[in-house]
């Protein structure tokens, strides 16, 4: 049996690529130096994979920003406005990713969206009616040859044409069907080129197939693949799916001339059933995704070997694979010096997963693997997990009642109380919470962590930052203020660190988008709150201003979704535990005079099952109640805000309203405010702040631009329900652009008020 992975992380084991790219943005290093960093990262990873004994080593899984963007550039899907500026190829690429404002022009970034059910964000490519799709790029070929020159045969990876068509944004009249022939031909040219260079297997990623697939979808897939099949000669084609099962189309796909089919046994609940329900063609290979590419727990060898045996018994030729790209897990446990071995033994990051693949490969070759030390040690891990049950937490959870999920009184009555209590102007202005995490903020945290600063020094520093931040907000003229979140490295890690039941890593970074990485905590055991977490910061901030100060918390679903979750209890149970801990914090803030509390559910949409039929049963039926459990205990005049980072919730709009917050702010600026219609149609009750400008880009929006956005909003949202705010937290931005943008935002709000 051979082994494979779908893709590897690419930011570098110590985020080398991130740092080099950011230097390149600041013009501190040249393009040649950046390219060299990329080459070095690729070389190291290929050699590591080769040394581990991996049979199918991927190439073209590297990216300077994002694979969807790479694919767009490869096939010339570059909107005119980015071509006009006359940038170099790399600058055009980065302008599409992040926007550009400077001597050569002023272009916005392309939209960014979450990649299926992950916290990775991809760039949404656009086609215009006159876009000439053809193979104009060279990246997969260069990378294939680069590996070949090191003596390493790789399996080039491309995002498949069907998924690409499904995720494209169509700016003109042409739709997917109209684009399919030229896109298919361009892919065919790429496949031909890879074959001519010597590629023996080519992987086409089609995660879109794990959605509910219709007959039309299947037809589109067949159409776009027709030229590719015609171009196939010496190379084999692997159709790779992940993030779920392909129950609707598996049989149809088996009829097509692919040489390998990759399926996900981890997230694909029906995968086993589907695979065993029909005969497997003799001329194909099944790439069985049995190692979790998304979570960090050790693989359970007895279970995996059992499935492998069943597949072999059914006469199915198998390559052992990961369930998805390892992009979603950190690089290596080797950099974790603080975590005790008794914990570490339970984890496998990307590098350790390579070891697992190798061990499973040799175990699977034995007639009785159960006597092997590797097998015995692995099996033992699953019977001995220390330190994870907290009886008090379980007891508390067992006593919650239905009424604990409902806030009293109902929305309208609360809204009236709050109107009187706050006397805010029409179109209140606010921000989402964080202010720029400038170098001094990060340095202070590092100094504290290393023990170079005392707790007192650290607190004083943060208090000064809070005071400056409040002064700035008052000067800018914002209505509802925030303390700035300077004490937080990350909105989830910060809470995790203050709750019992979490474990932390030092260097376990995972790419979120572009150069942004996150370090998700690990939920190890039952969760509870040790003591007040944010109360001292928020009350200090409130003491400095007459304006209402918004307390800032992260909600339970987001904490769960941005952590590595447990696999020994249900997600629902884990989330309710977190909800109770955050509820304690909400009530504490209220008791201490904080009258507006924002509970961020940035990642609520993220884990929505990809198949509609699973949405409620498997997710929303507990995710929404978890949020309600957090805030149901507050007084009518306390205003509860929430924030979601993702504008695409048109389809779950009722569920969002059911969260029963008083105000919701969300990201809308990068998606053309498409959500407004559905807010109107669905009589959305919660007051809304659809972000008026994009904080993911350093460009400063003009007053006019913001006013245009607000006017669009006012066409669909009643004036008394509209808030004005940026579309997300400001922590990744610089101070200068932040002040300039907020100044324009407040000015726009003032001018619009005058128009009323
Ligand atoms: N309150 C958080 C912040 O402003 C929200 C961040 C987010 O939505 N990702 O940083
Ligand atoms: Zn956000």
TrEMBL record:
One biological process term from GO is: methylation
Which residues does the UniProt record annotate as the domain Cobalamin-independent methionine synthase MetE C-terminal/archaeal? 427-750
Arranged from A to Z, the UniProt key words for this protein are: Amino-acid biosynthesis, Metal-binding, Methionine biosynthesis, Methyltransferase, Repeat, Transferase, Zinc
Specify which residues bind L-homocysteine according to the UniProt entry for this protein: 432-434, 485, 600
The EC code for this enzyme is 2.1.1.14
**Domain Cobalamin-independent methionine synthase MetE N-terminal spans what residues?**
3-313
Q: What is this protein called?
A: 5-methyltetrahydropteroyltriglutamate--homocysteine methyltransferase
């Amino acid at each position: 049996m051979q082994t494979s992975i779908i893709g590897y992380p690419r930011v570098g084991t110590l985020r080398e690529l991130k740092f080099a790219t950011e230097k390149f943005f600041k013009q501190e290093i040249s393009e040649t130096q950046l390219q060299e960093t990329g080459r070095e990262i690729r070389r190291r990873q290929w050699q590591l994979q080769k040394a581990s004994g991996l049979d199918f080593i991927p190439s073209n899984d590297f990216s300077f920003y994002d694979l969807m963007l790479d694919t767009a550039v490869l096939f010339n899907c570059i909107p005119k406005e980015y071509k006009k500026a006359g940038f170099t190829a790399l600058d055009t690429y980065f302008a599409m990713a992040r926007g550009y404002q400077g001597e050569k022009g002023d272009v916005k970034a392309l939209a960014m969206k979450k990649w299926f059910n992950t916290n990775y964000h991809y760039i949404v490519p656009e086609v215009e009616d006159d876009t000439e799709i053809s193979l104009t790029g060279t990246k997969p070929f260069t990378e294939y040859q680069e590996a070949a020159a090191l003596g390493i045969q790789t399996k080039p990876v491309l995002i498949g044409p069907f998924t690409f068509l499904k995720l494209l944004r169509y700016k003109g009249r042409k739709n997917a069907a109209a684009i399919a022939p030229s896109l298919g031909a361009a892919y065919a040219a790429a496949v031909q080129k890879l074959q001519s260079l010597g590629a023996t297997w080519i992987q086409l990623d089609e995660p879109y197939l794990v959605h509910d697939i219709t007959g039309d979808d299947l037809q589109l897939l067949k159409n776009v693949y027709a030229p590719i099949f015609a171009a196939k000669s010496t190379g084999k084609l692997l159709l790779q799916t992940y993030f779920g099962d392909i129950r609707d189309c598996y049989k149809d796909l088996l009829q097509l001339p692919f040489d390998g089919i990759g399926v996900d046994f981890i997230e694909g609940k029906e995968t086993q059933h589907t695979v065993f329900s029909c005969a497997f063609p003799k001329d194909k290979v099944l790439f069985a995704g049995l190692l979790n590419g998304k979570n960090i727990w050790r693989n359970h060898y007895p279970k995996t070997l059992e499935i492998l045996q069943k597949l072999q018994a059914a006469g199915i030729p198998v390559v052992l694979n990961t369930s998805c790209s390892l992009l979603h897990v950190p690089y290596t446990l080797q950099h974790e010096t603080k975590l005790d071995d008794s914990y570490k033994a339970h984890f496998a990051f990307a590098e350790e997963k390579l070891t697992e693949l190798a061990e499973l490969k040799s175990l699977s070759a034995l007639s009785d693997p159960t006597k092997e030390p590797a097998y015995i040690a692995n099996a033992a891990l699953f019977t001995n997990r220390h330190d994870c049950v907290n009886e008090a937490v379980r007891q508390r959870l067992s006593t919650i009642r239905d009424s604990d999920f409902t806030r009293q009184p109902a929305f309208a009555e609360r809204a009236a109380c709050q109107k009187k209590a706050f006397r805010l102007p029409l179109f209140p202005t606010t921000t989402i919470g964080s202010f720029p995490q400038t170098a001094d903020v990060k340095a202070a945290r590092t100094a504290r962590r290393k023990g170079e600063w005392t707790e007192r020094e650290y607190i004083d520093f943060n208090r000064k930052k809070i005071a400056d931040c409040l002064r700035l907000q008052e000067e800018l003229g914002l209505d509802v203020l925030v303390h700035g979140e300077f004490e937080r490295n990350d909105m989830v890690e910060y809470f995790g660190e203050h709750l019992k039941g979490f474990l932390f890593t030092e260097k376990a970074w995972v790419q979120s988008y572009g150069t942004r990485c996150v370090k998700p905590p690990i939920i190890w055991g039952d969760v509870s709150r040790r003591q007040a977490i944010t109360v001292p910061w928020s009350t200090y901030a409130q003491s400095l201003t007459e304006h209402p100060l918004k307390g800032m918390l992260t909600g339970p679903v987001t904490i769960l979704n941005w952590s590595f979750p447990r696999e020994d209890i249900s997600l629902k149970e884990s989330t309710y535990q977190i909800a109770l801990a955050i509820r304690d914090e909400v009530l504490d803030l209220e008791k201490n005079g904080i009258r507006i509390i924002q509970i961020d559910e940035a990642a609520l949409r993220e884990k929505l099952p990809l198949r509609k039929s699973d949405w409620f049963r498997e997710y929303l039926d507990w995710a929404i109640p978890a949020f309600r459990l957090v805030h149901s205990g507050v007084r009518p005049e306390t205003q509860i805000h929430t924030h979601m980072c993702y504008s695409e919730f048109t389809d779950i709009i009722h569920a969002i309203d059911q969260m029963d917050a008083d105000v919701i702010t969300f990201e809308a600026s990068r998606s053309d405010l498409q959500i407004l219609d559905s807010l109107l149609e669905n009589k959305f009750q919660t007051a809304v702040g659809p972000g008026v400008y994009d904080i993911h880009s350093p460009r400063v929006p003009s007053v006019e631009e913001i006013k245009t956005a607000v006017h669009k909003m006012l066409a669909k949202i009643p004036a008394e329900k509209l808030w004005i705010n940026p579309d997300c937290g400001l922590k990744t931005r610089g101070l200068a652009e932040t002040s300039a943008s907020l100044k324009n935002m407040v000015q726009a709000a003032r001018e619009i008020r005058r128009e009323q």
